[in-house]
Write a structure and sequence with these properties.
Elements (H helix, E strand, L loop, with lengths): L2 H29 L2 H6 L8 H8 L2 H11 L11 H25 L7 H31 L5 E6 L3 H12 L5 E7 L4 H12 L5 E4 L6 H14 L2 E5 L10 E6 L2 E6 L7 H20 L1 H14 L5 E7 L5 E7 L10 H4 L21 H8 L7 H7 L3 E3 L6 H5 L14 E3 L1 H4 L7 H14 L2 H16 L6
Helix pairs in contact: 1-4, 1-6, 4-5, 5-6, 10-14, 11-13
Length: about 475
């Protein structure tokens, strides 16, 4: 999912709110305009301040109805006429809901004129607002922003039609980088070379008649390289939980989602990360300052350590932690490998690490050393909840199934941490994190966040 698609889909919410509010505001002004009052005198004086108080909340009702109608779906290929038809029905449902509210709350107002004009204006203005957003989005696409760079795999009629559509309708946001008839060793090498140059976003298997083994191999290839896998299918395929169906030129195209954290899930999670991490940094600032002073007094070296870690899609970033070890502790790691207690996997862990300082032992036990990771969350490199961020040399030793851990941003805490912390074997930890990736819901995040302080207070060793 392109960031520009997430941005413009999220932008629709405030635009819709503003347009519904503006429609209600204009409807009120028109009702009390002299031309209208001459035709239909005002028998019930509607106080503007009271009207505005109600109008502030009415757009929220419409936004909820729009969401239920699928009007915030994140995709470029939706047809304008289909969207406008859905919008008309959704606005009508919103007005019907308002009428029901008026029926049960007669003291609000009794102006049928405002309801009728408000309905017409809402349909018109919301459509205009959405068309403007679409025009701006298409302008970005024409400048190469938000383009999906795709590789086409197939050699049938559907492949020909989709290829023509992509070439002749650039506003859809698809650019064909290469087209192959099969998924041979040579094809894989060519695609891998293009991926290494950041030229490929997704592979679309346009031929549904390819052998099942080939389709599975393509999907595994996409998972390994953190790109999107889509395929065409006939109308009798079953829709599992983690796929999304769209149509191009009347041909169903399936996107296999690697995680529920796509689209609005990603937007919601990012919003939650910014809000909670900001609040935590403000509330915990005295603790952060005291910890920094104690570290400086206790031993030589910087207050913070900057550690290389691997994040979403295998991208490297710098993780911030309070320093809990002696200066230049990393130089002693090779000498301590024989004492590694996590020999079951690629991780390195020593319970009584001789490199840890006195203050370091305390802040590790209480997980205070991990609080600076909230800055990583604000920067968008980490999330509050997710898999543990692993070191580059650990990731180099991953087996294929472990690479799914890199599908999403790593977290300050996670399902594995609240289910056993560092006592878990690596395979069990990976299994829990992969389960989280495949089954994410906002509820799971809240449960993990609520459990985390309790786990820390019990004194379990931080991971």
């Amino acid at each position: 999912m392109k960031k520009s698609e997430l941005f413009f889909s999220a932008l629709l919410v405030p635009v819709d709110y503003g347009m519904v509010f503006l429609a209600g505001f204009i409807a009120y002004q028109l009702r009390f305009y002299s031309f209208v009052t001459d035709i239909r005198p005002v028998f019930y004086e509607l106080v503007f301040t009271e009207y505005i108080k109600v109008l502030v909340f009415v757009p929220v009702i419409f936004i909820i109805i729009f969401a239920l109608a699928g009007l915030y779906a994140i995709r470029n290929t939706r047809r304008i006429l289909d969207e406008m038809a859905k919008l008309f029905v959704a606005v009508t449902a919103g007005i019907a809901f308002v009428i029901v509210m008026i029926f049960f709350q007669r003291e609000l107002f009794s102006s049928r004129f405002i309801i009728l004009i408000g309905w017409l204006l809402t349909v018109l203005l919301v459509m205009i607002g959405r068309l403007l957003v679409r025009v701006i989005q298409h302008a970005f696409v024409r400048r190469g922003i938000g383009i999906h760079s795709v590789v086409i795999l197939g050699n049938d009629q559907a492949t020909e039609e989709i290829t023509k559509i992509f070439y002749h309708q650039p506003s859809l946001g698809y650019k064909i980088i290469a087209r192959f008839q099969d998924f041979s060793v040579e094809t894989k090498k060519e695609i891998t070379d293009k991926i290494s140059l950041a030229l490929v976003d997704e592979i679309i298997q346009t031929d549904p008649n390819l052998p099942k083994e080939t389709s599975l191999a393509i999907r595994e290839f996409c998972n390994d390289h953190h790109i999107v896998f889509k395929y065409t299918t006939d109308l009798f395929d079953i829709q599992p939980r983690q796929i999304e169906v769209n149509t191009i030129a009347g041909i169903p195209i399936i996107e296999v989602k690697r995680t529920q954290l796509d689209g609005w899930g990603k937007i919601f999670k990012r919003f939650l990360d910014i809000a909670i991490s900001s609040i935590c940094l403000i509330l915990l600032s005295p603790l952060l300052i005291v910890t920094a002073l104690l570290i400086k007094i206790d031993s030589q070296g910087n207050v913070f350590v900057r550690l290389p870690r691997v994040g979403e899609k295998g991208k490297k970033f710098t993780l911030y932690k309070f320093r809990s070890m002696i200066k230049n502790a990393h130089l002693l790691k090779n000498e301590l490998l024989k004492m590694n207690e996590r020999s079951d996997g690629p991780l390195f862990k020593i319970k009584n690490d001789p490199r840890v300082t006195r203050v370091g032992r305390f802040i590790r036990k209480t997980s205070i050393d991990e609080l600076p990771q909230l800055f990583n969350v604000l920067k968008g490199e980490m999330s509050l909840v997710g898999p543990r961020p692993h070191e580059p040399e650990e990731v180099d030793r991953y087996e294929r199934r472990h690479r799914k851990l890199l599908t999403i941003k790593p977290g300050v805490t996670g399902l594995a941490q609240v289910s056993g912390r560092s006592e878990l074997k690596f395979e069990d930890e990976a299994r829990l994190d992969i389960y989280y990736i495949e089954n994410w819901t906002p509820g799971i995040d809240f449960q993990i966040l609520i459990k985390t302080p309790g786990v820390v207070l019990k004194g379990n060793t931080a991971s």
